[in-house]
Amino acid sequence: MFSTTFSKSILIALLDFADFATAAAPSPVSLTSTLSGPPAQRTFGPNVPMSDRPFTKWYNIHERVTIADFYTELFVLPFVIILTLVHLWGSNANRQKAKAWMQQHVSALKSEFAVVGFGGPKSAGSITSEQVDDSIVKEKAKDVFLSYATGRQNVAFADIKLNLYKRYNPLAIILDFGLGFFFESMPAPSEKAEITIYPFDGKEGQLVPRVPGQESEKKGRDSTYDGFVWAIVHKDVMKRLRDERYDLSLTSTKENAKLPAWATVMSESAEITDTLLTAELAKAVEACGEDLEALVVSDMPEDAPKT
Fold first, then answer.
1. Which end of the chain is less congested by CB atoms within 10 angstroms, N or C?
2. What radius of gyration, in Å, describes the C-alpha atoms of the chain?
3. What is the DSSP letter of 117?
4. Which regions of the chain carry the CATH code 3.30.70?
5. Distance CA 97, CA 37 (A)
6. Taking the chain, what is the end-to-end CA distance rounded to the nearest angstrom?
7. For residues 66 and 68, what is the distance between their CA atoms, to the nearest angstrom?
8. How big, in percent rounded to 5, are the helix, strand and coil portions of the chain?
């Protein structure tokens, strides 16, 4: 009984295997039936023509983007535009202010020096107050401008430095004035001209080349003098200059009847004052008014020596 049932099961399995072996191979599904469907089913793919693609709001920027998406840009952009315009205006204002200062003083500088500016001696004689350009005053920074003069007996050269407000950066101006208002140790910013003249002091032969055949003419013309420190200082800045400059800290303060009430003399001895403070100089100081911060003649460094 068991043998007969087992034989029938094997026969059925062999017949099923024979049917599977004789079955036809599967064929791929045609894509024609897929592409022939409705347009909604043929949205994507590189083979779908543009005419068959549905037109959605993705193609209309005004439908997929709203003003709420640009709130950050609308808030930041006005500040960027304002800062850019202020920067351009402030830079140009400082540049014009520096040129205006040179226009007022170029005639006086020409009368004292053979060369004014960076153009060399050829252009120095033809400079007029209407022709002040980058060869006369150079822009080192947006608030710092430089000029130069040379060609005077016993004077090596003169450096001219104009310090102006940071008009191009209103935040920096507010910060500087705020710190100067709340902290006495930090003075408020100011606009000023610093003119430093370097005499030869016996070193003319080291700085100016000798012309062959003129050694005898140059002999004995180098300036030599005993070193000293002497200054005319505005009383409002006297304490600050004494703290900042080592040379002025060595002097004593003395009133002088030739000077206006707002100015005083800082000197090492009265004899130096009697010699240097001439009537012409006192008149010039009075003409400058309280815009004059200090006139210093010194053979000592501004910074204290470390040794």
1. C
2. 44
3. S
4. 227-307
5. 78
6. 125
7. 5
8. 45, 15, 40
Token couple for 176: 């500087």
Per-residue pLDDT band at 40 (split at 50, 70, 90): very low
SS3 of residue 140 by DSSP: strand
101-105, 159-163, 300-304: least confidently modelled range: 300-304
pLDDT tens digits, residue range 55-79? 666 667 777 778 888 899 999 999 9
CATH architecture of 227-307: 2-Layer Sandwich (3.30)
At 300, the pLDDT band (50, 70, 90 cuts) reads confident
Give the integer Cα–Cα distance in Å for 283 and 260.
Answer: 9
Position 64: which residue type?
A: R
Determine the pLDDT at residue 293: 92
- Return the structure tokens found at 217: 């003419």
- DSSP characters over 253-304: EE--TTS-TTEEEEES-HHHHHHH--HHHHHHHHHHGGG--EEEEESS-SSP
Question: pTM of the predicted model, to two decimals?
Answer: 0.69
Q: What is the pLDDT of residue 2?
A: 47
Q: Evaluate if residue 20 carries a pLDDT over 70.
A: no
Q: Specify the DSSP element, H or E, that contains 195.
A: strand 192-199
Task: Name the nearest CA neighbour of 257 among 286, 228, 237, 294.
Answer: 286
CA–CA separation, 224 and 210 (whole Å): 19
Structure tokens, 50: 């543009």
3-class DSSP state of 229: strand
If we measure between CA atoms, which residue out of 184, 104, 112, 100 comes closest to residue 150?
A: 112
Contact in structure between 112 and 152 (CB atoms under 8 Å): yes
Q: Are 133 and 126 in contact (CB under 8 A)?
A: no
